[in-house]
Amino acid sequence: MSAIEKINQLSHRIFNTSVTEQNVARTSNPFAASNFQKNILTEDVFESSKKKEENKISFTGNLTAHSKRVYSTFVGSINDFGSRFYEGIQSLVSLGNKMKEGIVNTWNKIHELGQKEVSLEGAKDVLSRDIKTFFINGQEREISKMSKMDPISEVKPMFSEALSALEADMVMAA
Amino acid sequence: MNKDMFKNNKNFSKVSNIIESLTINPSPDSVAVLEEIGTNSSIDEVREMTSRALVKRNEHDSLHVVIANRGKGINDMSTIVAMSTINELLSLENKEEAMKVLESTISSEGFDEEVKENARSVKALMALS
């Protein structure tokens, strides 16, 4: 047999297991049909699995169906406990993150408000200055406008009227 | 009514603005308006402002009103008005016209002795300043 034929046979045995398995006897002793150092093992020298099952301590022997349900629920709850505990930790972590974000946001808001107050102060200064300038300019504009009027026909009646109103204010104040 | 109340009074501001406008109004009629209405006002503050306005114009007619007229300008019954007018005369950069009016008032026969005495005193102050 050439080397190539041996390889082919080996590969056939490896990959086509169904052919070889047909020849294996299905007994409790897998080596019963084999030649074990030229002695055929006629007895089952391996420990029976049934015997093991008899000696095994059974926890379910005396359990009622109700107890089984209770225990299964208990076990299930233990299993759930881990996930619930994990979820709880996760929620705590998320709560902490939210609190942290809240504090950071609050701090930023306070900072922004502080800056806004500064900017408002500046705006207030500008506004007050503009208002003062507006009134001063308004007064100057009024004086300049009246200085171009005719004193007898235009300014004199205004002067008399304003003076009469001022005298009336003085009487009321007195 | 005190000065703070005057400052906050709308009509006082209006009167003040009118007097200011008549101070810089180039028309000679402004002096007549200031004399007729301002110097005859019953309010001391208005008479004071009017007298100062007439001095600021620094014209013969306006200075004549506050120097040679009885009861107006330096001859006003109110000490505040009279002193304020004198102070304004002393503050003038060009006192030439004011000195001419003062000298004419002192030397003229038609004025009261009290007016002449006041003009003499102001002239002495202006000569020293």
Detailed description of the structure:
- The complex is a heterodimer of chains A (174) and B (129).
- Chain A has 174 residues and is mostly helical.
- Helix content of chain A is 75%, strand content 2%.
- Chain A has five helices and two strands; from the N terminus they run H-H-E-E-H-H-H.
- Chain A has a two-stranded antiparallel sheet.
- The longest helix of chain A has 83 residues, at 65-147.
- The termini of chain A are far apart.
- The mean pLDDT of chain A is 70.
- In chain B, helix 3 runs antiparallel to helix 4, helix 4 (44-57) packs parallel to helix 6 (79-90) and helix 7 (96-107) packs antiparallel against helix 8.
- Chain B is 72% helix and 0% strand.
- Chain B contains eight helices and no strands.
- The longest helix of chain B has 16 residues, at 113-128.
- With 129 residues, chain B is an all-alpha fold.
- Chain B is globular.
- The interface between A and B is medium-sized, with 26 and 28 residues.
Task: Return the average pLDDT of chain A rounded to an integer.
Answer: 70
Written as H for each helix and E for each strand, in order along the chain, the element string of chain B is HHHHHHHH
The radius of gyration computed from the alpha-carbon positions of chain A, rounded to a whole number of angstroms, is: 54 Å
Number of E strands of chain B: 0
Biggest sheet record of chain A? 2 strands, antiparallel
End-to-end Cα distance of chain A, whole Å, is 144 Å
Indicate the structural class of chain B.
mainly alpha
Pattern of helices and strands of chain A: HHEEHHH
Helical content band of chain A = over 70%
* Alpha plus pi helix count of chain B: 8
| Number of separate helices of chain A | 5
Percentage of helical residues of chain B?
over 70%
Regarding quaternary structure, what we see is: heterodimer
The low-confidence runs of chain B, each spanning 5 or more residues with pLDDT under 50, are: none
Question: How large a portion of the residues of chain A is in β-strands, by DSSP E?
Answer: under 5%
Indicate the low-confidence ranges of chain A by residue numbers: none
Dominant shape of chain B: globular
Percent range for β-strand residues of chain B:
under 5%
Measure the end-to-end span of chain B.
Answer: 35 Å
